[in-house]
Amino acid sequence: xxxxxxxxxxxxxxxxxxxxxxxxxxxxxxxxxxxxxxxxxxxxxxxxxxxxxxxxxxxxxxxxxxxxxxxxxxxxxxxxxxxxxxxxxxxxxxxxxxxxxxxxxxxxxxxxxxxxxxxxxxxxxxxxxxxxxxxxxxxxxxxxxxxxxxxxxxxxxxxxxxxxxxxxxxxxxxxxxxxxxxxxxxxxxxxxxxxxxxxxxxxxxxxxxxxxxxxxxxxxxxxxxxxxxxxxxxxxxxxxxxxxxxxxxxxxxxxxxxxxxxxxxxxxxxxxxxxxxxxxxxxxxxxxxxxxxxxxxxxxxxxxxxxxxxxxxxxxxxxxxxxxxxxxxxxxxxxxxxxxxxxxxxxxxxxxxxxxxxxxxxxxxxxxxxxxxxxxxxxxxxxxxxxxxxxxxxxxxxxxxxxxxxxxxxxxxxxxxxxxxxxxxxxxxxxxxxxxxxxxxxxxxxxxxxxxxxxxxxxxxxxxxxxxxxxxxxxxxxxxxxxxxxxxxxxxxxxxxxxxxxxxxxxxxxxxxxxxxxxxxxxxxxxxxxxxxxxxxxxxxxxxxxxxxxxxxxxxxxxxxxxxxxxxxxxxxxxxxxx
Length: 579
Prior knowledge:
Layout: H1 2-38, E1 49-57, H2 59-62, E2 64-65, E3 72-73, H3 78-87, E4 93-99, H4 107-120, E5 125-129, H5 144-157, H6 160-177, H7 193-198, H8 200-211, H9 220-238, H10 242-256, H11 260-269, H12 273-286, H13 291-303, H14 307-317, H15 325-338, H16 342-349, H17 369-395, H18 399-412, H19 417-430, H20 433-447, H21 450-462, H22 466-479, H23 481-497, E6 500-504, H24 511-518, E7 524-527, E8 542-543, E9 553-554, H25 556-576
Parallel strand pairs: 1-4, 1-5, 5-6, 6-7
Antiparallel strand pairs: 2-3, 8-9
């Protein structure tokens, strides 16, 4: 009996192994067939074969700075230039680039949206630059049952048999049973918890700002419903479904009077500055004394170098009895900063925020939705004030006060990267490298974000601390298995659909940690961007570079340099036959 049982187990294992090998071979053949199908019949009017490229990633692929280097907009993103540069090359192809990047996207959301897109379209090339936003969940460590499940799921995800059966279910069963997941999110309940948690601030601020001067006596349930609608509208903005976002926000604004500030964000992202200005002006006609709206319009004028209009609006606003003077004090400090009157700006703010004033914001679970959104708005205004004050100290070369203020700010504002960037500059000026290293480690170990580990690894590399650098690489395997899984799933998805996958590392970062994070992937082309910004000061390439990252978003020039490098690599791959 025992021998029969052992024989049965061995037989099952042999069968699974045979199926695994067979399916791997079949999947490879199917991938080559799909690849041929993708490029066999499409030609443009010049009888050139069309090569379709889809870009995936987060905000670093979705937007870049405008020409004035004041706003992040879509039409400056590197994919826009990639299509232009590729079609300027002497190649027998016509290139069409589609940008499916998601603002603030984590790898699981990027994978989910790409999966839906590939069901309806068959691109020849997928370009992927992602991972920066992924976080490690601390509650999972030291829990062997959770760890076991995680590794079991990872092993299943890497199994060709499992993926084939999953694909079969996905393509056939779901399709014909009416459960096809190509449908985009249409209800608040469909949104992921990670999206809701990571995008709470803009939604709550919109509600708080708009309701401050409306004196609405909404029931908590009604306000909660409005919050849900705004979350959904913001999701549409993040995923590039702009018509849906505009329709929903317009409806919410018409029915309830909310949505003004999300509409402004919507128009700014599309670089429609006149529309953003019109929305704020329309709102101010009805609520002329709302300090949030006044500040937003004045900042818009500042960011578009319309200083005269900003000062005119500021002069008019001084006669209004404001309910939140700190909002407008923040703006006035920026006017003084623009005029290089740093001491005047400090005088405005130092008695209103910073380490001299204690703040306690009630976040009790019993608080109503209206109280909660107002608390978050107050926190945001106070943090903004504290950062502006710290920046003015720095610009006025009062480094000791700036450092003292920033330590308080960083510890109470969840490591707001703009504040930490100023600390880095102070340490550089004072030659305090040990403090910079300690700050690096503090942020990395407390935040547990992939981008922090990329930056920490590069810091160790640049200072020749190779043992510590290798330790960071080892941490990737332990902490970010979910990110690794999402890279693998995108690779598998590309193979199934016959697309060639390009995985890029972010500019200035080394390629080694990315390879450690992704593991061994089949038929993937890696592109190294570490040195592409080395021929000029990095300030030319980065829009508000923020520590600890070597970059945040690109300037117009930075986006063009990245696009040029990628275009050259794609051309090389096509000529050599690897693409």
